[in-house]
Amino acid sequence: DFGRSSELAFVVEPSDDIAVQEQPLILYCQVEGIQPITITWRKNGVMIVDSENAFMLANGSLYVSRFQRVRGDGSSDEGEYDCMAQNHYGLVVSRKAKIQAATMSDFHIHPQNAVVEEGGVARFQCQIHGLPEPVILWHKNSMPVNTDNERYTLLPKGVLQITGLRAEDSGIFHCVATNIANVKFSREARLTVSGSHSTVYKDPMILVGPENLTLTVHQTAVLECIATGNPRPIVSWSRLDGRPIGVEGIQVLGTGNLMISDLTVQHSGIYVCAANKPGTRVRRTAQGSLVVQAPAEFVQHPQSISRPVGTTAIFTCVAQGEPPPQITWLRNGQILETSDHIKLKNNNSTLSIYGINQADEAIYQCLAENSAGSTQASARLTVLWADGLPSPPQGVRAETVSATTIQVSWEKPLQNTKEIIGYVLHIRKAADPVEMEYQEAVSKSTFQQLVTDLEPSTSYSFYIKAYTSRGASKASEVTVVSTLGEVPAMPSLFIKVINSTTVQATWEPSIKLGQHEGFKLYYRKVHLSQYTGPVLLASNVTAYNITHLDASVVYEVKLLAYNQHGDGNSTVRFVSLRETVERTVLNPPCDCMKDEQNNKTSTTGIIIGIHIGVTCIIFCILFLMFGYRGRLLMCKNVQEQLSTPQIPRSQRSATGLVLNGATRRDRDDRDLNGKQLDMNELERLFPASPSQEQQEKGITSAHSPSAPHDETQISTLPLDEFSIIEEQPDPLPKNPHGSNPAAPAPDHGPANEG
Questions:
Q1: Within its chain, how far is the Cα of 689 from the centroid?
Q2: Looking at the structure, do residues 66 and 201 belong to the same domain, yes or no?
Q3: Superkingdom, according to UniProt (predicted)?
Q4: SS3 600
């Protein structure tokens, strides 16, 4: 019972037929369902009124007493017929039956005389059109050709092939075409077999190759291929796509014709006939295409359903065929018109009816049709309506709260409110189709709902339904309101130092900004309150050069996006220009490692000091292990780096980075005495040779006892200029235990390389 409505459905539908002139014709139609049922007929969409020539029988079939292709008034009994059945549940329409008159034309190809040498191949052809397809037989000397002779091959399209010709094959041939409309004879043709079989070599040659054919499933295809040559070539078949032809339903007629019985869609393809010279690779080929069509048939039928008022009904109808069928929907026999609440999707395979009401109750039909045939299936929609359901909610109002929020409020229905278990708010963008609607459930005691996560500057429609355990009320009035506009988000901003007076501000366009008309750029010296700007930039601009800056001060750069709703939040960056090739971006989050590498003021000194300290420790260990005596060339800030704890990058303030040179000098003055004691201890552990050797090595003392403490000079050495000068071996006998700890240590201060 798939594809049938139990209330009303077809048991037998009219089928395509070929009618004979002046003969009666019967078109069958049988319906089952709930009585009373009324049956009517249409031809080419026009109702047929009973007459002497055509009238309906008691069983619902249509009887045409004398079929005529052309009547005296110019009308014709040919056309497309369908049967309609109706009861109080609805109306259904049968598939269309195509009725054609039986005809036969004159022969447009007649057999031709032929003279062929003995052992060769003879081919005769005659061609004629007719409905139904005429059956063509061949006569030789006015007698039917003996089809038991294996050398004689009759093909369905009116071709006669004779292979291995002999003298007795000579004669007069003609063909006879027959169908229900007529019988016709072709002209005669003479076959003459001359000479004896030749032994001269001849290359293989295909006389006639396969034609392009378009057939329907379950029919039979014959692909002709006739070849000549000496020696006689071997004929073989293949598919151009490389797929195997198979063996089921495959037969070879004569010496090389391919016949495929009970065609399927899978037989479609391009077939290649090859004539091969035996024992060699010499070959000739010819090809032809076979297209197999399949009438439309259903893979999934629509099913009858019952749905409460206000819900959604969905019918699915999936059909297949070759070529792919076109699907049409009918409602009670009429073409279904789509609307806001009736939608067709998936190439018309899915019918959705939203917010159904009593008027949607009907029988819905799915018609699938292609060039090979048509079919139909029906299903009924029953709309459930319970007495005592609530009336629609009243006073629906929607108020805009923000760019993404709307508050919807309503009042309870006027009637039948006792059984209400809740409300459902239906939400949809006003520009979207109905199927994009979504719902939010609300308790029965709540008469307002805050709808969030909406899009800015967008119109939305809202309506409410009240629900009971037995069904839903009708929908309330629809209200439409728009969300507020939204300013753009913060853009990403990056600052690049171009030279000592120019920086480049760059930013990335992003969809996260939202709708924006452009950008506004401001900049100022940090110690001033007044900004320069705004510089107005178009929405497609992503960079701007700020010129004529003062390299001695820090600048603040600010960027924001704006639109018709106002200015968005700004992104701020700070930048300092100190030298032409130096830059420091001071605002968090910062890449502190990058800042240290680029800053050759106080930060560079700290890093160089760390490296010098690590180097000194390594050399001290080496001297202790191997017993070498040497003097370590030190700079004054070595012990500062060894004794001063490292400050985490995250705790280094922007001010500390800028003013580090000044603060460091103050710290040096405070710690001078302590550092001098540390240096004396190192020199005690590593005794030094006379100061004359220092002078020979080019070392000068940066601090002497007579020099005042406030005149101490501090220098920062780049790593590539720092070096260790090893002292010459002591000519005096060495203490076997190393340096004498009791020897007085000369007072040497930190030394700088000359």
A1: 83
A2: no
A3: Eukaryota
A4: coil
